[in-house]
Amino acid sequence: MTATLVDDLHAVRQRTLALVAGLSDCDLERQVDPIMSPLVWDLAHIAAYEDLWLVHRHAGAPLLRPDLAVRYDAFETPRALRGDIELLDTAGAKAYLAEVRDRVVEGIDRHGADPVLHEMVLRHELQHTETMRHGLALGGLLADGEPPDAPLGGSDGWITVPGGPFPMGAPGARFSYDNERPRHEAAVPAFRIARRPVTNATWLTFVEGGGYERREWWSREAWAWKEEYDITHHPGVATGHPDAPVCHVSWFEVAAFARAHGARLPTEAEWEKAATWDQDPAQPPLSHRLVGIGRVWEWTASPFIGYPGFRAHPYREYSEVFFGGTYRVLRGGSWATHPRIASRTFRNWDLPERRQIFAGLRLARDEEG
User: Fold this and answer.
1) Do residue 202 and residue 321 come from a single domain?
2) 116 with 185, same domain?
3) Which pLDDT belongs to residue 343?
4) Could you give phi then psi for residue 337, rounded to 5 degrees?
């Protein structure tokens, strides 16, 4: 297992470096938007996180650069500040990554690998490469072919999901994040869920029908946000393939869209049941009948909270500090999400006004009596 994990760590690092290989130092070191970090901050943050968990806490060695700990701590240095402080330049960040990785391999040779900590650090880097693509998208720097603009395929329509209990959350036999645990019994009434995510063409019909002008479809908070920032549809909706899933839409927007269509967003329990419920031997598994999972993150109606019996592990800042506020849950993964991350129980979250993520929606409705 240790040899495989080391190979995986190296493969992920090669993937990260390939992502930025064609970018200039200027592009890596500038902040394209206050809600995003300079890409060079992400590179050094990946190194600092790896040094903290795998070298310092696992292997017991001192930090390579204790002077950088606060600068590259996501909570001590919020995104809005990262473009205004002194950061390692591109060469310095890449050297930091390489030096830390040498220390990690040495630590594994001496102490072995921790199946939780090493997997957590590996996935942390994978998650950051998706976040970095958010910045690349905002800066017009995505590689050719990203994002994919292929049509969804399949047909429109609704799938009925029977009511009743189901096991929600990650099974104990595999790595999972603390917010996916503990697995517990959840019950939902019967409901219907759209076979496919909403497409660009359908969203444009909403726009042309006054979607950003009809006050009755928007909550008070959402309308105030839309008016303050003069929000209208994302440019990619018009330029993308009509039958590709709509992307870069906020929770505020998708909630208004759902109301306009006499529908709603699924709760995350409904989403997970639909994506995992395979209990009727006479029917194809529901998860096989849902088209487009993994093309865009799918907003749910649910706030981000802990499951019953939640316990923070290995640190509360991964999930717990985001509970109970305004964050909303997204499910399913996007084209930029590595398959190692995008399980059917993985929970993503963001603020309801955020549009930088590769997010769309799938509608739900109550089952008619």
Assistant:
1) yes
2) no
3) 95
4) -90, 130
| Mean pLDDT of the chain, nearest integer | 95
Kindly list the distances between the CA atom of residue 10 and the CA atoms of 7, 17, 54, 100, in Å, as whole numbers in the listed order: 5, 11, 14, 12
Token pair for 194: 């759209």
Same domain? For 54 and 191 the reply is no
Taking the C-alpha atoms of residue 15 and residue 21, their distance in angstroms, rounded to an integer, is 10
Length of the chain as a residue count: 369
Q: Are residues 297 and 348 in contact, defined by beta-carbon separation less than 8 angstroms? A: yes
Give the per-residue pLDDT at 5. 86
- In-domain check, residue 144: no
Is the same domain home to 84 and 183?
no
Split into its structural domains, the chain has a count of 2
- Cis? peptide before 147, omega within 30° of 0: yes
> H/E/C letters for each residue in 101-167?
HHHHHHHHHHHCCCCCHHHHHHHHHHHHHHHHHHHHHHCCCCCCCCCCCCCCCCCCCEEEECCEEEE
In this predicted structure, the answer to whether residue 265 has a pLDDT above a threshold of 60 is: yes
- Residue 92 and residue 236 share a domain: no
Closest among 172, 182, 46 to 116, alpha carbons compared: 172
Q: What is the DSSP letter of 293?
A: B
Q: Which pLDDT band, with edges at 50, 70 and 90, does 287 fall under? A: low
CB neighbour class for 138 (10 Å; exposed up to 12, middle 13-18, buried from 19): middle
Cis peptide upstream of residue 314 (ω within 30 degrees of 0): yes
Antiparallel, parallel or unpaired: β 184-188 and 164-168: antiparallel
Residue percentage of the chain with pLDDT more than 90: 90
The answer to whether the CB of 359 falls within 8 A of the CB of 248 is yes
Query: Same domain, yes or no, for 37 and 124?
Result: yes
Is residue 18 assigned to a domain? yes
**Segment 39-61 mean pLDDT:** 98
Structure tokens, 43: 């590179």
Spatial distance between the Cα atoms of 133 and 39, rounded to a whole number of angstroms:
9
Rounded mean pLDDT, 75-82: 92
Domain that holds residue 282: 158-366
